[in-house]
């Protein structure tokens, strides 16, 4: 059995194991058998409601969002040929967060349950359109990065302005806590809202393997191999916008997954961007599931945010990777 097959089996087993643990973690004292029976059969009164309406959507969103962030991170790093690239680099996360913050600030989120994810998705769409407009359809990678940074900075400035103009501290607290990212209190409605964008964007990004592998030889060589660079560029941007926008819309801003997981797994797939796509997808799903389990186990009586845990885990890991890279003289 090859190295890639062993890695795939290991990651799939890890994701499945964490998914089951995520389903079973909670304040309920029901046994594992009763919990799984209630989930599958729908029988068992309140326990079935807890399993199907609370824990199942939380675990599903963990898999979907984690996988999407890991995949988009691997795609962005492969396209830009920069290991420091992050899905949020093109300004989608900041734009989606701004849309969600406006929904909270204006009170639309309290009036209509779908207003917050809808405005977050609208913000992500507007952000990526502005990035495409600034960078141009045939612009260089540097132009794309600069346009993304500019849109991110502008969105962050507007978000700060909204926070500054909050009429009371409760509204400001709600905005700040939402921006930390969380899977708590999500329902199947959130799953159905995000699912089309996550699957559509995931399919776009998952189709990039050959193009990203060819791009490692340079743009001229990739074009000589028949890769349409304009189509590749648009596919990366639109796919990343769809998955990151949908993730931010239903779970808030969750960082470091798309940045760290490709780093951790790159060595196992021979540094091939195409092979890294599926590995980072599974790795990202495992990281979000594990972080969400930690949120519920470490301080079960406090609303610890998922984005805080991924940052606490991801930042030191990223620093270690930078130190190791310097030590190896890469």
Q: Taking Cα atoms only, what radius of gyration do you get, to the nearest Å?
A: 20 Å
Helix content: over 70%
Main sheet specs: none
Helix/strand-derived category reads: mainly alpha
Tell me the number of strands: 0
Query: How would the global form be characterised?
Result: globular
The span between the termini is: 30 Å
Q: On the 0-100 scale, what is the average pLDDT? A: 86
Oligomer: single chain
Describe the structure.
This protein has 330 residues and is mostly helical. 77% of the residues lie in helices and 0% in strands. It contains 15 helices and no strands. It has helices spanning 3-24, 32-41, 46-80, 92-105, 108-111, 115-135, 141-164, 169-179, 188-206, 209-215, 219-224, 229-251, 257-266, 273-298, 306-327. Helix 6 packs antiparallel against helix 12.
Features:
15 helices; mainly alpha; globular; 330 residues
Can you give me a brief rundown of this structure?
With 330 residues, the chain is an all-alpha fold. The protein has helices at residues 3-24, 32-41, 46-80, 92-105, 108-111, 115-135, 141-164, 169-179, 188-206, 209-215, 219-224, 229-251, 257-266, 273-298, 306-327.
SSE inventory with pairings:
Layout: H1 3-24, H2 32-41, H3 46-80, H4 92-105, H5 108-111, H6 115-135, H7 141-164, H8 169-179, H9 188-206, H10 209-215, H11 219-224, H12 229-251, H13 257-266, H14 273-298, H15 306-327
């Amino acid at each position: 059995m090859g190295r890639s097959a062993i890695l795939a089996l290991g990651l799939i087993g890890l994701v499945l194991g964490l998914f089951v643990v995520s389903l079973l973690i909670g304040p309920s004292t029901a046994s594992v058998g009763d919990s799984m029976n209630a989930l599958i059969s729908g029988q068992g009164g309140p326990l079935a409601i807890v399993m199907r309406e609370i824990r199942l959507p939380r675990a599903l969103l963990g898999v979907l969002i984690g996988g999407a962030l890991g995949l988009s991170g691997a795609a962005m790093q492969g396209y830009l040929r920069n290991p420091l690239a992050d899905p949020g680099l093109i300004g989608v996360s900041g734009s989606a967060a701004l849309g969600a913050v406006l929904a909270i600030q204006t009170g639309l989120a309290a009036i209509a349950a779908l207003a917050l994810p809808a405005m977050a998705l609208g913000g992500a769409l507007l952000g990526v359109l502005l990035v495409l407009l600034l960078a141009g359809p045939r612009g260089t990678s540097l132009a794309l990065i600069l346009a993304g940074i500019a849109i991110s900075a502008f969105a962050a400035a507007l978000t700060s302005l909204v926070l500054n103009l909050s009429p009371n501290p409760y509204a400001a607290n709600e905005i700040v806590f939402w921006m930390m990212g969380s899977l708590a209190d999500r329902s199947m409605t959130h799953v159905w809202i995000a699912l089309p964008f996550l699957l559509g964007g995931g399919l776009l990004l998952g189709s990039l393997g050959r193009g990203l592998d060819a791009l490692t030889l340079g743009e001229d060589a990739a074009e000589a191999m028949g890769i349409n660079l304009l189509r590749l560029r648009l596919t990366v941007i639109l796919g990343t916008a769809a998955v990151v926008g949908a993730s931010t819309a239903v779970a808030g801003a969750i960082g470091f997954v798309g940045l760290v997981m490709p780093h951790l797994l790159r060595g196992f797939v021979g540094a091939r961007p195409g092979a890294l796509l599926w590995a980072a997808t599974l790795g990202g799903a495992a990281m979000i599931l594990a972080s969400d389990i930690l949120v519920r186990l470490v301080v079960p009586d406090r609303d610890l945010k998922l984005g805080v845990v991924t940052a606490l885990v991801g930042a030191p890991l990223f620093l270690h990777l930078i130190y190791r890279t310097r030590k190896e003289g890469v």
